[in-house]
Specification:
Number of strands of chain A: 0
Shape of chain B: elongated
Radius of gyration of chain B: 25 Å
Largest interface: A-B, 26 and 30 residues
Mean pLDDT of chain A: 90
Largest sheet of chain B: 6 strands, mixed
CATH architecture of the largest domain in chain B: 3-Layer(aba) Sandwich
Mean pLDDT of chain B: 83
Structural class of chain B: alpha/beta
CATH superfamily of the largest domain in chain B: P-loop containing nucleotide triphosphate hydrolases
Low-confidence stretches of chain B: 310-342
Oligomer: heterodimer
Order of helices and strands of chain B: EEEHEEHEHHHEHEHEEHEHEEHEHHH
Strand order of the largest sheet of chain B: 6-7-8-3-9-10
Distance between the termini of chain B: 11 Å
Strand content of chain B: 25-35%
Order of helices and strands of chain A: HHHHHHHHHHHHHHH
Number of domains of chain A: 2
Shape of chain A: flat
Distance between the termini of chain A: 25 Å
Chain lengths: 287, 342
């Protein structure tokens, strides 16, 4: 794992994308810091992070799009597929290298509250727990990006897929308030999910019958649930939307609440997508 | 020793490798020979753990590639068809990375890298970016990577493809010298290469093993008894009729007929007296002999013959079931023994 980690980190630092991503992020941090903390004289650095959180939608896929897609295209994946290392080591090595890269701008962000504290009182504990949450938010986004990079050999597809997923997650709160009116939206969403699951099954198992079966079973289940307990669908809908919203977890920290479940939630998302990535790579041996 | 039994691989419903069984003994240089698309790369990918077989087992030094993948893979140095090089690294960095991947102890790493680089002949480009290296050097760097850690088995997938003739010869010499310390399994679709380098040849076609043996054995197997190639001036049909009348001459076949010359493949003993009478008779019939030579099938012919009809060939019974080899006795028995050893 150490070997992969070192190589990946060195490759990121040699390449352009990493530095550009860091620069963009720090530039935006600078602007928001000037606007919120300096001009409006608010001591909360969290607002700056909240302001720039949308940039993760583009930065994370840019950092992760190459990680597995490019190796597959160049066939360099054969090196570690045939070396005496496990795929978990490979995946985690790559992931931790990306986290290290992402930690660079976060480390710079950690300096801002110290600067502010020279001129007034800054709620340090609150600020740093928010920064930590932001780092975990990025970690979850990066994990999702690595996963999408592992399922394709085209960087562009990896970028776009990750960006779309993160975008939906970012907009989730807005979508939620938009769709609480009834269970129609829930039905629509669950149908779409069933369709997506069916398509995924079709793609992964290369069997249309299986995909269609997955879709049909899920639709039947949905119809049953709607028929017998119509309230259940909209409740489930709400909680599903909640669960898909990465960014709202972070926003909770802005009110000054320390939300341990949010940490666990973000960590779980990161771990889950790393697990998926290993499974995708392992599956490739069996294709 | 590598043991492969009943190896089968399906991609979706297309069969790439079907029921392949063979073994590679220590110290051999084994060539996996077959036309493009015969399943060579697939087989090698399965041997190295890159792909999992649909059916069958692979054991490397007693480690099953699926049950104990890390231990099995540690025994193998693999050079795929496209060397897996990170072009943004320098050669030394790359080899160091491979050494770490292969879990070489830090204290031994430097020495291992130097050794592999010297063996593969890349010592003079150690501080250059791989991106800037020529194809031949890239291949060598890939080979150096495969050599790191002294794996007992080297698996080389088409190691000479894309090299210029000089580099090809160098690569072959290199493989030969590697054969002294490692067991080498290499694949190729170039016959002359395999027969020049390898001690043992496995011919695959359509995902099946169609023949195996040393280059000499294969040649002997396929020689087709005692054939002569006779070239005459005049009508091929007359020559055919004349030859057919001779009691000691077996099957006769017209091969070519052009410019008043005909070439015939004749089944007969390579015997001076017989040749004299045959040529005298042909001269009498108005077809003077202008050339007569023993018709040894080249490996090239064997290869073509074997790979053209993969469906009819059955792996297990191939050496005996070929109708051509009725008169081979001793060598045949020797081979049977060899195979029963496997």
């Amino acid at each position: 794992m150490k070997a992969i980690y070192k190589r990946e980190l060195a490759a990121h630092l040699r390449g352009l994308i990493g530095w550009v991503a860091i620069a963009v992020m720090l530039f935006l941090v600078g602007i928001y810091f000037t606007a919120y903390n300096l001009q409006s004289q608010i001591p909360y650095f969290g607002y700056v992070l909240s302001g720039i959180s949308f940039v993760l939608i583009f930065i994370c896929p840019a950092l992760t799009m190459r990680s597995f897609a490019e190796e597959r295209r160049q066939r360099t994946d054969q090196l570690w597929m045939t070396a005496p290392v496990s795929l978990t080591e490979v995946t985690l090595g790559k992931y931790f290298a990306l986290l290290t890269l992402f930690a660079i701008p976060i480390a710079v962000c950690c300096l801002y509250p110290l600067v502010l504290s020279q001129f007034g009182t800054v709620p340090m504990l609150e600020t740093y727990s928010t920064i930590a949450a932001f780092f975990l938010l990025g970690a979850a986004c990066i994990s999702i990006g690595v996963f999408f990079s592992s399922i394709t050999e085209n960087q562009v597809i990896a970028f776009v897929a990750t960006a779309i997923v993160l975008m939906v997650s970012y907009l989730m709160e807005g979508l939620k308030s938009f769709a609480t009116s009834g269970s129609q939206a829930g039905l629509l969403l669950f149908s779409a999910a069933a369709l997506a699951a069916g398509a995924l099954a079709w793609y992964l198992a290369k069997s249309f019958v299986l995909g269609a079966a997955v879709f049909t079973v899920m639709e039947l289940f949905l119809a049953g649930a709607t028929f017998f307990r119509s309230g259940a669908v909209s409740t489930a809908f709400d909680s599903v939307l909640d669960a898909l919203s990465l960014f709202s977890r972070f926003n909770g920290f802005l009110n000054g609440t320390f939300d341990l479940t949010a940490y666990f939630y973000l960590l779980s998302v990161a771990a889950l997508f790393q697990f998926f990535t290993v499974q995708v790579l392992e599956k490739r041996r069996w294709s | 020793m590598i043991e492969v039994t009943n190896l089968t691989k399906y991609y979706a419903d297309r069969c790439a490798v079907k029921g392949l069984s063979f073994s590679v003994k220590k110290g051999q240089i084994v060539g996996l020979l077959g036309p493009n698309g015969a399943g060579k790369s697939t087989t090698m990918n399965m041997l190295t753990g890159c792909l999992a077989p649909t059916e069958g087992t692979i054991s490397i030094e007693g480690y099953d590639i699926l049950e104990q993948p890390l231990k099995a893979r540690a025994q193998i140095g693999y050079l795929p068809e496209i060397p897996p090089l990170y072009v943004d690294m320098k050669v030394r960095e790359y080899l160091d990375f491979v050494a770490q991947l292969r879990k070489i102890e830090p204290s031994k790493r430097k020495q291992e890298i130097e050794q592999a680089a010297t063996q593969a002949g890349v010592s003079d480009v150690m501080s250059r970016l791989i991106r800037n290296l020529s194809k031949g050097y890239r291949q060598r760097v890939g080979l150096a990577g495969a050599l790191i850690g002294h794996p007992p088995f080297l698996i080389l997938d088409e190691p000479t493809v894309g090299l210029d003739p000089k580099q090809m010869i160098e690569m072959r010499q290199l493989i030969r010298s590697l054969g002294k310390q490692h067991t080498v399994l290499l694949s190729s679709h170039i016959l002359s290469e395999v027969s020049a380098v390898c001690d043992h040849i496995l011919i695959v076609s359509g995902g099946q093993l169609v023949a195996q043996g040393t280059p000499e054995e294969l040649q002997a197997k396929m020689q087709g008894g005692n054939g002569m190639r006779i070239t005459v001036m005049g009508s091929a049909q007359t020559a055919l009729d004349t030859l057919n009348q001779h009691p000691q001459v077996g099957d006769v076949r017209i091969e070519t007929e052009e410019n008043g010359q005909a070439q015939l493949l004749v089944e007969m003993a390579d015997d001076a007296e017989l040749k004299a009478t045959v040529s005298a008779q042909l001269a009498l019939a108005g077809c003077p002999v202008i050339g007569m030579a023993a018709n040894n099938m080249s490996l090239e012919d064997i290869f073509l013959q074997l790979t053209e009809q993969p469906q009819t060939a059955q792996t297990d019974e191939l050496p005996d079931s070929q109708p051509e080899e009725t008169s081979e006795t001793q060598q045949e028995k020797q081979e049977e023994q060899d195979e029963s050893d496997l």
